[in-house]
Write a structure and sequence with these properties.
Layout: H1 8-22, E1 25-29, H2 35-45, E2 48-51, H3 58-64, E3 67-71, H4 77-92, E4 97-100, H5 108-121, E5 127-132, H6 133-142, H7 167-181, E6 184-188, E7 192-195, E8 201-204, H8 217-231, H9 235-253, H10 257-270, H11 273-279, E9 282-284
Parallel strand pairs: 1-2, 1-3, 3-4, 4-5, 5-6
Antiparallel strand pairs: 6-7, 7-8, 8-9
Bound molecules: adenosine-5'-diphosphate, 4-methyl-5-hydroxyethylthiazole phosphate and magnesium ion (MG).
The site of magnesium ion has 5 residues, from helix 8.
Length: 286
């Protein structure tokens, strides 16, 4: 069977196998809240995490990593400077970069910093932006990309790090960002949208409403996107699928947010082609 004839589930399962065989090193400049969740999610899926942000080692770290994940969740002036430096190194080394614009929409500092980092990271044409609906809308607005046909109800004002908009209402904004930065864009929420390159767009309806009750699951999704970016051509689709399916299966066994967090790692670890085939709810919408 050729790749194009394979079902989406088979493609995702193949990419997961490849990720586990290659165990890519994912360099994370991420926030203090989620360093542990993100590292554990990467290990559970089969990747190898490193969290590092010193200027003294960034050049070497970028050289040996398979991908770079930049997450601005607990940014300050020093971190933003490091993130720009890391992005520049990754562009020079032709490494994929994932940007998680955590909390964009909540402050002008976040808006401007995310835009500046994205502008640098996009120079390598290997940028993936993964955010919730409000972050995606706010980042597009900051870049003055407001689509003419966007719904009037759209706010793009993050309630801190949480979304107040639906991912459906962010779709036009995500597409505008994808065009502007020549980037892949993943919008997460009750429904996930993946705006890929080459006119590919996917809608995924896995997941569980308990997932946003645990901090750092969106950040872990961005970290997993980094792992797939190092090893496959469909990073956004694969990461959204495995996180959605693992979250959904984890929620079946969980009593609440505490056990969901633990179950999620176990489900990421044991995900296989059968569970992907049985549970994936995804379609190509373009
Ligand atoms: N209401 C929901 N129903 C099902 N899955 C959800 C829901 N909200 C979020 N998710 C899932 O949780 C994960 C993180 O998404 P999200 O909460 O949007 O990120 P963030 O934490 O960055 O705001 C994604 O896999 C997404 O599909
Ligand atoms: C609560 C919080 N505050 C700053 S970063 C962060 C974690 C956000 O994680 P996620 O976007 O995955 O919910
Ligand atoms: Mg987030």
């Amino acid at each position: 069977m050729t790749t194009t004839n394979k079902s989406l589930a088979q493609q995702i399962a193949d990419n997961l196998l490849q990720l586990r065989q290659q165990a890519p090193l994912v360099l994370n400049l991420t926030n203090y809240v989620v360093m542990n969740n993100s590292a554990n999610a990467l290990l559970a899926i089969g990747a190898s995490p490193i969290m590092a942000h010193s200027r003294c080692e960034l050049a070497e770290m970028v050289r040996i990593c398979g991908s770079l994940v930049i997450n601005i969740g607990t940014l300050d002036e020093t971190w933003v400077d490091r993130m720009k430096t890391a992005a520049q190194f990754a562009v020079s080394a032709d490494k994929p970069i994932v940007l998680d614009p955590v909390g964009v929409g909540a402050s002008n500092f976040r808006n401007q910093s995310a835009l500046e980092i994205a502008t640098i990271a996009a120079r390598g044409n290997r940028l993936i932006i993964r955010g919730n609906a409000s972050e995606i809308i706010a980042l597009a607005n900051t870049a003055e990309l407001t689509p003419a046909n966007a719904a009037a109800s759209v706010k793009g004002i993050s309630k801190g790090v949480d979304a107040t908009d639906s991912s459906h209402s962010a779709l036009q904004y995500g597409q505008a960002l994808a065009n502007y930065f020549n980037a892949e864009v993943v919008i997460s929420g009750e429904t996930d949208f993946v705006i890929g390159k080459n006119n590919r767009q996917y809608q995924l309806n896995n997941g569980d409403p308990l997932m946003p009750k645990v901090t750092g699951i969106g950040c872990s999704l961005s970290a997993l996107t980094g792992a797939f970016a190092a090893t496959s051509q469909q990073p956004g689709l694969c990461a959204a699928a495995v996180m959605g399916i693992a979250g959904q299966l984890a929620a079946k066994n969980a009593k609440g947010p505490g056990s969901l967090q633990m179950e999620l790692l176990d489900q990421l670890y044991s995900l296989n082609s059968k569970t992907i085939e049985q549970n994936l709810i995804a379609k190509n919408i373009l």
